[in-house]
Amino acid sequence: MAGSLVSLTILTIFCVSAAGNRTQLLSGKGIDGLSALLLPDSDGVCSSMIKNHGYSCQEHNVTTKDGYILSLQRIPAGRSGGTTGTRPPVLVVHGVFMAYWDWSLDELVAYDLPETVDYIHNLTGQKLHYIGQSLGTMTAFAAFSRNLLIDKLRSAVLLCPVAYLGQVNSPLARAAAETFVAEVNTSSCQQSLSRGAYDQNQIWRIHLLENMLLLLIGKNCCLDPSISSILLEHEPQSTATKNMIHLAQMIREGTFTMYDYKDAKENVKHYKKATPEPYNLSCIPSDIPLYLSYGGADALTDEKDIELLLNSLQGHDKDKLVVQRIEKYAHGDYVMGDNAWHVVYDPLIAFLKLHQ
């Protein structure tokens, strides 16, 4: 995808860590108050996962106002090389099990995404295309509903779009939400969500994760074994206990709201009212180009939740909203499908070209 159209900038939240705990970071010039940090290439995702596939790659870091370092990888050109020219940047934001510590969706909306977009916008001098998958779409919906980022984006592509979760039919997600122990014992849950709790060298771990994926996201139709095996070697990454609690709340209650502290005084402290603020999708500006694609077999994006999402976007300009439904696709097919290039990425690229 990057080689045929644009310089590709990937936000890898799974590399986020507390600022004070990071080492071997070289300070670069800050942009608009943000601390831009250049990570030695030998220590980053570029060397471990991108350059060995023939792409050039640059490591970038942004320190957020709440003290986290976001690691970004930029692929400035395709395998054939060449210069970046004036091609618009694309920010790709992934799903849930790829980040960690004390934050939830609200912090992603308030800090991570705006500051990342600002960094790329200031660095390139151009508006961005946004591509989100799963949690990356939920973050975008929430930000757009607050009229954030809109003036710096050309368009937004939202794969496996997630806003409402009340009808999730994933057995694992539903069971976790109904009995989520993190709301009682956060320390044990933090460890259980960490990839470090598994022995990466044991074959049984891969089989276990394959079965967990089936229960969590539904039966994928078209997985490419060469891609899925690479993913499973690196998953699951750690995620924030608070974030999992937040998702569990939205599954149980069928709402799209900010984090509920389950204490009126604490909610008042954060929101100046006893209940958390909703993310109102009808407030999304109607003229931002949106491309939504969901799978008919996706256990995390139930048809009824998608219908509720689309109803919230009824006021959107008709020529600025594209909706694609892929009958047999589940959550993982969008990332690991052997036919995703033609089924998902070709129309996606056509959409981006339309809004250059």
Element-level helix/strand string:
EEEHEEEHEHEHHHHHHEHEHH
Outline, from the CA principal axes?
A: globular
Average pLDDT level? 76
The CATH topology = Rossmann fold
Structural class: alpha/beta
Family: Belongs to the AB hydrolase superfamily. Lipase family.
InterPro entries: AB_hydrolase_fold (IPR029058), AB_hydrolase_lipase (IPR006693), Lipase_euk (IPR025483)
Pfam families: Abhydro_lipase
Signal peptide: 1-20
Task: Give a quick set of tags describing it.
356 residues, alpha/beta, Rossmann fold, 10-stranded mixed sheet, 10 strands, 17% strand, globular, disordered N terminus
What features would you describe in this structure?
This is Triacylglycerol lipase 2-like. Keywords: Signal. This protein has 356 residues and is an alpha/beta fold. It has one domain: Alpha/Beta hydrolase fold, catalytic domain (Rossmann fold), CATH 3.40.50.1820. The protein is 36% helix and 17% strand. The protein has twelve helices and ten strands. Strands 2-3-4-5-1-6-7-8-9-10 form a ten-stranded mixed sheet, sandwiched between helices. The longest helix has 20 residues. The radius of gyration is 19 Å and the shape is globular. The relative contact order is 0.13.
Short recap of the structure:
The chain has 356 residues and is of the alpha/beta class.
What layout of secondary structure does this protein have?
Layout: E1 8-18, E2 26-27, E3 35-38, H1 45-50, E4 58-63, E5 68-75, E6 90-93, H2 105-124, E7 128-133, H3 135-145, E8 153-159, H4 171-178, H5 186-192, H6 203-217, H7 225-234, H8 241-253, H9 264-271, E9 290-295, H10 303-312, E10 321-326, H11 333-336, H12 340-354
Parallel strand pairs: 1-6, 6-7, 7-8, 8-9, 9-10
Antiparallel strand pairs: 1-5, 2-3, 3-4, 4-5
